[in-house]
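Bumping with the actual sequence this time:
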Amino acid sequence: MNRRDLLAGLTAIGGLATGSLLLPAGARGAGRPVRIAIVAKSLGNGFFNAVHLGGDQAAAAIASAGGNRIEVIFTGPTNTAAENQIDVINALIAQHVDAIAISANDPDALVPSCKRAMQRGIKVMAYDSSVAKEGRILYLADATDQQAGDACLDLAADACSGHGKVAILSATATSTNQNSWIAAMKADLPKHPGLDLVTVVYGDDLSDKSYREATALLQKYPDLAVIIAPSTVAITAAAKAVDDAGKTGKVFVTGLGLPSECAGAVEKGTIKSFAIWNPVDIGYAVVEIANTLVAGKGGPGSSITAGKLGPIAFDADGNGTLGKPTTYDKSDIAAAAKLF
């Protein structure tokens, strides 16, 4: 990817006049909205599209309640390479946005750019997958690492009646949230003595690579019982790989997915059940929290009211949690698929 072209394109995303680019963050002219950038791990991912939808809903709710007029800038790289997220951050700094909320592809590589943004007066927070603490003010986790890990392992045990070989198909090897969830799963394995974790592989949150990795797992472990995919991209790719290999009903896929994307696999029986938190709520909370930070309120050790979602508490390190994931199966997948 040509970085010069990427930077030029991202600078144009906000549709900003040349004069407004000269304003420092926080120095809004009359009628100028609060500009909150939501940065995805990669574009074209249904999870982050739903986050964007929630962010727009929060912006509308805040304005209708007499609060700030908010412009949500939804952006991200076309792949999950950390250097491309850095380019996105640098472009947003050049736009002088008021806040950046990012789901990090690498917790450490993004820190210098995020620190530079904060030095320019931009409020930086992370959601879904955190930047290291020194690179952000707050981090909103989808769920606690333990909740996510427990959910995935329990789902795997249910899929194979508590006995069999399981493999994990994750996103990137540097993904903060994925690695924490995998660590929680490994720590919880003694609770499921019949499960044998044979390997962890990475599909880089790309459908084609995740499909290839899942196919390779099926070939390497012919007696594999379950593929755990704690990624909305990987779970659908793994389900397709199992179906294409003619192993539906023999190998099950579970993990974290979107109802709208997993409905077909659930109906076929490739996925018995899976879990997810509502990404629309995540986006809603992100914009509410970022708007509070721009107003000079909130921070580590505080509780921030996220509109209709209520208060979210952040600890002294700036970590907060949205809530436990919800499990979906054939009994409720059709209704959930209409929502997200």
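The tokens above came from a reply further down the thread. The chain has eleven helices and 14 strands.
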